[in-house]
Here is the input.
Amino acid sequence: MLGKRGQGLSTNAIILIILGVVILVILILGFTMGWRTLFPFLGGEDNVDTIVQQCSTACSTQNVYDFCSKSRTLKAPELEGGEVVGNCNLFSDIVANPGYTIYSINDCPGLCVP
Here is the structure.
């Protein structure tokens, strides 16, 4: 009994365990932080559909903060510099910003009171 040793883990087993832990960490981060945050190159060229949906939802739920104040970054290849930062009220104001009409972000009358 004194001279016996237990069998150790092989190098392959250790590498597989480490690889499994790394993949598990990446999956946890991807699902908690969001895949576009973790890997920004996975995102598309534009986010117009997302912004239109978010602004539509904010208007239909009468969420004043989300529609009038929350800062959003509209990304589209047609924009100068590829993106513009604003809020839904700015993007929907066709009088002050006629260049955004092609994105069909609807106005929400009476929600943003000056």
In short: Residues 72 and 102 are 17 Å apart (CA to CA). Residues 11-42 form one domain. The chain has two domains: 11-42, 48-103. The two ends are 86 Å apart (CA to CA).
